[in-house]
Amino acid sequence: YHLEITWQGSIYEADATTNLEKVVIDSIAYTQAFNDVYGEHEGVITYFKDPVGPGNYFRFQEYRQVDSSLAHASIKLSLQNDCILGDTIFILELGRSVYNDENNDGNQIKIVVEPAYTHREGIESVIKIQSIDANIYKFYDQLDQQKLAQFNPFVEPVFLRDGQFGDRAFGFFGALTRSEGVSFTYPE
Predict the structure, then answer these.
(1) Per-residue exposure over 27-56, b if at least 16 CB sit within 10 Å of its own CB, e if not
(2) Alpha helices in the chain, H assignment, sequence order
(3) How far apart are CA 7 and CA 165, in angstroms?
(4) Which residues, in sequence order, are bridge partners of residue 43?
(5) Rounded distance, CA 96 to CA 116, Å?
(6) Distance, CA of 61 to CA of 53 (rounded, Å)
(7) Cα(79)–Cα(128) distance, integer angstroms
(8) Where is 33: in which H helix or E strand?
(9) Residues 156, 142: contact at Cβ < 8 Å?
(10) What is the pLDDT of residues 150-180, one digit of tens each?
(11) Which of 7, 107, 109, 171 is most buried (CB neighbours < 10 A)?
(12) pLDDT in tens, 25-47
C-alpha cells in the first residue's frame, strides 16, 4: 500500500507491505524466572516456526482480564481505581520488544515476554503473535534501543528517527497480521 498525505503544501509518502504470513503458535509455556538486561522476570514463553524467507518480524500480543487486585509488573502501580470498582476489565498487552528472524530463517523461534500486569493462578488469556512489516519493526526496535540507553550509562543515546517521511514529519506507516489465538492459563 502507498500512503500519500498532502498537508500545508507538503507531500508525505510511505509504503507498507501487507503480504505478511501468519505464524502458527506451536506451544506456550511459563517460567518463574528469566534474565535480561533489566534483571530477573517471570515470563510467558511462546514457540512458533518462522516462515521460510528472510525479513520476518514479530511482536507478542496477549488479551486477558485483570482486576483491581493486580498491578503493573514493572512499576508495581496498583490498578486500584474508582472506575474499576473491583470488577474485571479486559486489557490488550502488546509487547514493546520486537523480534526478527535474522540467522534463524525457517527455524523454531522462542519469544519470552514478561507480562505487563501481575497475575495469579488460574487467570486465563489468549496469546497471539503479530507478524509485522519492516516499518513497524524499525520503529519499535528504536524504542527498545532508546529504553536501553536510558538505563545503561555505557550505551550510546538513541534518538527516534523521523520514520518513513524523511525529515519533514515523524511517524511510520505499517501493516501486521495476527496468528490464531491460543488459550493460556497462568499456572501460579
Answers:
(1) ebebeeeeeeeeeebbbbebebebeeeeeb
(2) 134-151
(3) 13
(4) 31
(5) 10
(6) 23
(7) 24
(8) strand 25-36
(9) no
(10) 666 666 665 666 556 666 666 778 899 999 9
(11) 109
(12) 999 999 988 877 667 778 899 99
